[in-house]
Amino acid sequence: MKIQYQLTFILLCTIDFFTPPVKAQQVYLSGTAKASIEPQPYPFSVALAGYGYPRGGRFSLDWIKKDKPEISLSEFGQSLNWKKQIKLKGGNWQKQAEQEKIISITRYKGRLFGLTTNDELMRLELRQDNADWVKIAKFNGLSYNIHLKAIAISKGRLYGLDNDNVVFEARHKTEGELSVRAVAVSTERQTVVIVGADVCGFNHNFITSVKAAVAKKHKIPASAILINASHTHFAPSTQDWTTWGSHQLPDSVYLNTVLKPAMIGVIENAIRNRKPALLSFGRGKTEIGKNRSLEGAVVPYDNDVDVLQIERKKDHHKTVVFLTGCHPVFKNEGIESFTISPNYPGVTKSLLEKEAGITEAIFVQGCGGDINPVTLDHKKTGNDLAEDIKDILNRPMEQLSGEISFYLDSLNFPVKPWTEERILAFRKESDNGKEDVNAEKDVRWADLMLARYKNDKMPVKMPVYIQTINIGNWKLLGLSREAVTDYSLGIKNIWPGKLVSVAGYCNDVSSYLPTSRHIQAGSYEGLGSFFWYGQPAVFPMDVYEKIIDQIKTQNR
User: Fold this and answer.
1) Domain end: 172, 191, 222, which one?
2) What domain of life is recorded for the organism (predicted)?
3) Residue 402 and residue 322 in one domain
4) CA-CA distance, 411 to 546, in Å (whole number)?
5) Three-state SS for 102?
6) 139 shares a domain with 204
7) What are phi and psi of 61, to 5 degrees?
8) Which residues fall within 8 angstroms of residue 23, CB to CB, at 6 or more apart?
9) Are 523 and 486 within 8 A, CB to CB?
10) What are the backbone angles phi and psi of residue 309, rounded to the nearest 5°?
11) pLDDT tens digits, residue range 142-157?
12) Do 289 and 244 share a structural domain?
């Protein structure tokens, strides 16, 4: 018996000595948060971003018949007698109202709202000197399918009255699912935040203000916060589409009282919600997209789907951040074209949370500048992508370990603007009076450039922002602008075999980011889109090579 115990002891010691130590998976601190960015009843209607068609814009306004209206007919009578009811000094708003054929006017929170004889709604900012009336809704036969004789506002709600004295309430036509979501990940030394927002894009100065607010309160530098736009074409306008017309500019109420506080709030809450968590990474493939622009034997499309899984240690709640590059669009017709929607990313997020045991799903748009869905059914696209992600989650994933670091750089491309003579000739050629959307856009672009020359404000550079977030052995590299799929493929090739994900639409969506192939072909991504975006020039032929070289030599 004694010998047996000795042999057992020797055997156990031998096994313990020769068995390599098991490396413990690194524990990070991670927190998530989300907030709705649905427009509130006021503002009453917002322009939807992403398409220049139909002419005159797409708006969220939906008229709902009220069987028991909470407004009296006398209030509509007041709006019809607006010349007597609204007495204001200064400005030429009344003369403009007559020119716009406005027949009914009501006032609310420093703004006038007017109804025209051709079933358009207009807005005037009273706090702005020499402000012009701006269109905020128009008859489209679908969501706006009634003919009104008067409008009025009561208890913060906009109402319309038709010729039969039937009352309608203005609401937003929406799926009700627009959101902004954030995940914060920390070690003892550093914290980074990744934000995904259901918007078409944003201006750099807007994102700078969001990051500055967070940095002031939490001491997290701007370079540690990556903000990505899903680029849905069915969200309220949130950036300057100057050449589309004044109706396409963002509503300041939505921008500053809904979107901005929601962005700041989710970042702060994600930081507050941090708990110990394990991180892992997986990659699969998808067939949801195709290259819409390039032709030939080799047409690029990075169809990778990257998934970052975050599992809290205590309760095993799982968050996933998923990334692929594909435009969130469908055919711009029918009632869907006037409906606020996160498009396929929203469908995918919802399915993952309902069917895959995911507590929070966050979408990051990849380099989808020239990639469109293969189907016009965004629900099918979202479902197909959800299945691809569930397949990744059901396979072994690579554990993340290591320190956190971040880096933000910019590459400034010198602007070579057209001469004033060329712009004037272009304007004359475009000003054909045929009410053509493209021609009108070109005229506005020419006027914008001529005004910049006159005021000596022509931009001298076009910056591309390059942001890197390293979480252990995973690198997320975010590019500004609408980066085409080649950038994702090229950047991944810099680190073959490594865990590298590439996002476009980060921090600034001020134009496309094409390659020489797009520029030479004169494609929308390489030429025409720069007029739509109000850019002073297109990028040089070697824009792709310079960005790749910058990342090779400077990236950390």
Assistant:
1) 172
2) Bacteria
3) yes
4) 9
5) strand
6) no
7) -60, 130
8) none
9) no
10) -105, 130
11) 999 999 999 999 999 9
12) yes
